[in-house]
Amino acid sequence: MDNEDTSGYTRALENRIAYLESKLGEQSGNKIADESASATSTSHVLHSNIPAESQTPDSNQMSFSSSASNLGEIVGFLSLGRAESLTYVGSSSGLPLAVNLGEMVRATVMADVFPSSPVANSGGGTPGQTNKDSTGAHRTIRLNDLLKHRADPPNDEMGSRIIEAYLGRIHPRYPFLDRDELWRLHEDRWRLAKTKPEDLSRNERFGTFRLYMAYAIAATMMQLSEKYTYTAPGKFYVTAIPHVAAACETSSTQNIEAMLLLVIYHMRSATSHGLWYMIGLAMRTCVELGLHRRTTTENLDPFSIQLRRRLFWTVYYLERAISMSLGRPCSISDRHIDVDLPLDVDDYVRDPVTLNSLQPSTKTTTLSLFHAILSIRRIESRIQHSIYRTDRPLQELRPKMDKIYRQLEAWKASAMPRFKDDLEYPLLHYYRAVRLLIQPFLPLLPVTDPYYHICIRAAGDICQAHKKLHQTLEYGHSFLAVQTVFVAGITLLYALWTNTEKVWSVQMSNDIRACSTVLFVITERAPWVKRYRDSFELLVNATMEKLQGNEAATASGMTGMMVAQSYGNPIIQNTGRPVPTAMDSVTPNMATGLAVPQAAIPQDPFQSQFQFDIDEDAMRMAMELAPWMDQPLEGASTPLWMPDFDTLQNLAGPYQYYGITMADDHKKNPVLPLDETISSLPPLVPSTNLAAEIQQSPRDKLPVLVVLDDDPTGTQTCHGINVLTVWDAATLEAEFQSGTRGFFILTNSRALPTPQARDLIHEIGTAVKNAATKTNKAFEFVLRGDSTLRGHFPDEPEVTEEVAGQADAWILAPFFRQGGRYTINNVHYVLEGGSKLVPAAQTPFAKDATFGYKNSNLVDYVVEKSKGKISADRVKSISLEDIRVGGQDAVAKKLLGLEKGSVVVLNAVVDTDMEVAVQGLLQATTSGKRYLYRTGAAFVSTRLGIEQIPPLSATELGLDRSPTSPGGLIIAGSYVPKTTEQLECLIDGRGDKLKRIVLDVEELLAHKDDLETAVSAAVNLAGELITKGEDVLIMTSRKLITGADELSSLNIGTVVAAALVLFLRLLVPRPRYVIAKGGITSSDAATKSLAMRRAEIRGQAASGVPLWRCTEPTSKFSGITYVVFPGNVGERHTLWDLVASWAKPSSGHS
């Protein structure tokens, strides 16, 4: 890193540290501020890597920053060595490794080292949950605190038991350690413990880490499966952590071993949230060292070759398992791997002759289980690659199922005789693979299809296998086990919910009960599993209601059942200890001959089966699963995927579905004072002159920006470019060939019902793509949407991707300063009264009859508008701290680290924020990323490098204001309260200098089949007044008339818009200017009344109010000054000011 970059990076760190310290001081007093100020340089490095989601001024998140800083002394090693360790690693988790491990350490420490803490005793933690004291603040943990709680080496008896537990229960599954070396370290444990760390060699320090991690892993297994009262596993763990630096000083297999040990430990801890990230890093290190290739084993002895293979294939095994469980991608494709599997030999065999001459054998060895499970894991990898994909419809993938199923059957045939005395664990993997293969196709398969029943049987066998394994001392569950049994149980419930008595049997009853029992047993030892257990019970009881013939359950669907329960059904809000699902007794149904659950027969079934409080996390999870269970059967056009475990694990925010919001936006998002809020934000960072950079760059350096605008108001921040209202090939090709950096296409899609809007966007997108291809121009799409979040979202981005291909991410950026639209901490605000920020969902805009919404937080908004299709975990953010402290580099790094398919909320309160964010976006774009933008007006001008100019005066526009000039025309169709308020001000302010004509909406609706007759009188009167030089306001009556639903409301609006279009089209005298108030009104007036095909955007008539001029001879009133006045922009007096300033001198402000 050169000196200039280093100094800039240092300044960014200093700014961030100063800001965080000031916030901590405000929240926690001088004590915490002093502690922050005394943090070591290592902890400062941790500050630099804290993810942006955790860097908002929110108090809880600030606590996270503080804790990460204190943990820097423990995990600072991860920021040492190569420069790459200071950057983000991985494609989607967004967590820097140091903070990720820091949170793992914290959870372990709070649970095991400081068991008296409120968090440790609460039993309510979940993987990935941060730990706070009873006040909500993090407890400060420093290295000295941990050193006081180090574990002494175990005594001879317990030490041998622990090592034997590791080698007997962990090592056969993950055989990457040298067992002889592990015993040697154990025998040398006292010397290693008494020697000062600085006096130990690097290998001895790593050996200490390896030994204590083995202790910790084995002790965890013992604690989960038997009565264990010896040293807490967490104490062994924190004894190991200070020595892990030895593994990170060089890029070696020790790096990989360290990460594997950490992953294996945390698979059974309450902090599984970082596992995918860490195991992915381990795999990428394997690739860097060439462990995946055959050719890298030259010059190694046979035993070392086998150790390297065991190491690589253990990483492979775990990465496949974790990635598939979480629904995330793997780091390397199987086709890039050609290293052989390790030999099926006892792992302690070291003799070179034996290893070189070994022949295939049916003898069972210590590696036979690992060898067999690896084989089926590779089949699962094929399933993930072939079936779990988004680029092909599931219907097209059905033929692939047969071949893979035959491979699974062949594996089972070979495993049965070899493991005949110990089949439970191998067969569990077989059942898991079968369910993984068939389950996505269940909505497409008829219940008579053999595969349907094979899948249900596999799911049942998973539950039964887990029940048996939990009855043994050797089995200690991991989060993978929780995922496996939970998803199997949900699969059974899906089949029962959708096909009821067609699939019900005594066996299914027993299988569901087994799943319930396993989840209850695991919850007793791992409280974070409680939400899975409780959500499963919620779904079980709803399913039982339907099975026993409850008509309400059948009519409302699973979603309706969950909603009813969440709103406080008194039957299901009983207190008490939960019990497993009662499905022991069944009686035959004489009518069908099938078994019906006796437990479902009592008059009050909920009372007998559901005797515990509804946990919010459990309800949120059940609501996430309900749409999948409710989807149509057999031949569904686009089957829903079952929500993956990662989505369920990280559900946050108010649970909602199809517009149902379970939290009050008013309570979550209060109105904020403007000045105090802005002053509390991090200071602005100087930005380069982005506009100049873009304007001076070669025209072909950046893609042409094609802005599909759902109404004409999006042009309000631009000037000097064109807006098209047509998209024929000749017009588009001419625009691309003109050398423009971008242009607008007016779609007016907000005036259309969703199906027609989708068709229109597909048509326009295809035309743009074809024209760009023909003219050899690269381009990007921006879907400019109404700045108060109203429009066809997510439909328009979805259909755009159908045309242009999937983007790496959607960028949601509704900020628009001129319109008083700000996004802070992911909440979108509207400036009211010049002094207060009102959350958007609390404004009249959110009550739009067609496009209303209930959430101001844009994460929740995305989930709401997508009806749960886009889950909250897919919505990321570029925070104001990313922008103002990290700058464009931090923005770019965050964008480059996103998982494909993310939605990114872009926060901004001033134009500089948008400029820095766009610089980061451009930087990410040059790295090959493609983004799809859903934005307000500010993004477009920033991205095009258009500098803002003040509103144009009547003189600058060349308006004829002579006494003989015609009058001006104002057309108002918008119904938003701001428009009504502005019209009142205009009418009162202008008095008799403005002539008003009102079109009665009820009258228009009554004559919708003959609108020309309805408007003819108004047309004639307006023509006479304009000819006389009078300014005329033509407006609709202000009583808002809505239909019974969104579509009928939109149809009413269509009639009103058609009347105004007809009025302007029939008007003969040319006005001095035309002001069209409202997005749909201005669009229709421009295209349908004035026949504009291409217009130049000249600038603004007032702040946030676009000005157009069309000089095409085919347009009506060619060259007229045309004002596109958004319905939701401006203060009460803005329209009055504009009309008065453009009035003839004798009739100005009155």
What does this structure look like?
The protein is of the alpha/beta class. The chain folds into five domains: 10-145, no CATH class; 147-357, no CATH class; 422-586 and 595-651, no CATH class; 672-944, 3-Layer(aba) Sandwich (Rossmann fold), CATH 3.40.50.10840; 954-1147, Molybdenum Cofactor Biosythetic Enzyme, Chain A (3-Layer(aba) Sandwich). It is built from 45 helices and 23 strands. α14 (275-289) packs antiparallel against α15, α23 packs antiparallel against α24 and α37 (911-926) crosses α38. It starts with a helix and ends in a 9-residue tail after the last helix.
Strand order of the largest sheet: 14-15-10-16-9-6-8-7-21-22-23-20-17-19-18
How many domain regions? 5
Roughly how much helix do the residues carry, as a percent range? 40-55%
Shape: elongated
**Low confidence ranges:** 1-10, 27-100, 114-140, 567-612, 653-663, 1040-1050
The major β-sheet equals: 15 strands, mixed
The CATH homologous superfamily of the largest domain corresponds to Putative sugar-binding, N-terminal domain
CATH architecture of the largest domain: 3-Layer(aba) Sandwich
User: What is the CATH domain class of the largest domain?
Assistant: Alpha Beta
Radius of gyration over alpha carbons?
33 Å
Output the CATH topology of the largest domain.
Answer: Rossmann fold
How far is the N terminus from the C terminus?
A: 65 Å
Q: If helices are DSSP runs of H or I spanning 4 or more residues, what is the number of helices? A: 45
Protein name: Xylanolytic transcriptional activator regulatory domain-containing protein
Region (Disordered): 28-65, 118-137
Biased composition (Polar residues): 37-58
Subcellular location: Nucleus
